[in-house]
Amino acid sequence: MTAHRRLAPGARVVLASHNAGKVREVAALLAPYRIEVVSAGALGLPEPAETEDSFLGNARLKALAAARASGLPALADDSGFSVAALGGAPGVRTAEWAMQPDGTRDYAKAMARVAERAAASGNPDRRAWFTCALVLAWPDGHWEGFEGRVEGHWVWPPRGTRGFGYDPMFVPDGHTETFGEMDPARKHAISHRARAFAQLAAACLPPPAG
Length: 210
Ligand code: IMP
Known about the structure:
With about 210 residues, this protein is of the alpha/beta class. Helices cover about 30% and strands about 20% of the residues. This is dITP/XTP pyrophosphatase.
C-alpha cells in the first residue's frame, strides 16, 4: 500500500463544495487543525457535473477538478441519503431529488417523495442511512478517499428545523431525535461526515493544534 500524503501545518486547502450547509460542517470539522480553508465558490471555480455512480467517484471527480484548477490541495465531499425499501435510493441522486424545474432545491418536496415512494413500495423496512465520501486530491493527481456512514431509520412527518437537507426525516440508531431536532454538536459527533472525517484526519491532516 502506498504511504499517505499528509498536509503540512498551515497548508491552504480548497473546499470543493458549493453547498453552504456542507461547507459550514466541513469547515467546523477542520477548525482544530492548522489548515487554511478557502472555498471553491470564493475562488470562482466551476462546479463539475457529478457523473459517477458512487459517492467516492463523485468526490474524487470534484476534488481533482478543484486541485487542478487552483493549484492547491482540494477536499471534496459527496454525500447522500439512502432508504432500504428503495434499494438504497435516492443515494448518489439525493441532491437531484430535490431539484425543481427553476433550478432551486426543495427539500420538503424531496423528503415527501422519499416517504411516498417508500410507502408505495409496500416494504415495511424503515432502515435508512447517510453516506459521506471525502476525497483529498493534489494538483499532481494524487488522491486519497474515505467513506463514513450513519445508520438509522426514516420517520414521517419530518421533525425539527436544525440541520439541512434530509435531516428532519432521519433518526440515527441509539437516538430518538431526528438530525433536524438534535443539537448540531451532537450530530457532528456521530454523522457520516464526522466518521469519514476522522479517517481523513488520521491519515492526511497535521496533528490538531493545542
Ligand atoms: P451532493 O453531495 O452535493 O451530491 O448532495 C448531497 C445531498 O445529500 C444533498 O441533497 C444534501 O442535502 C443531502 N445530505 C448530505 N448530507 C446530509 C446531512 O448531513 N443531512 C441532510 N442531508 C444531507
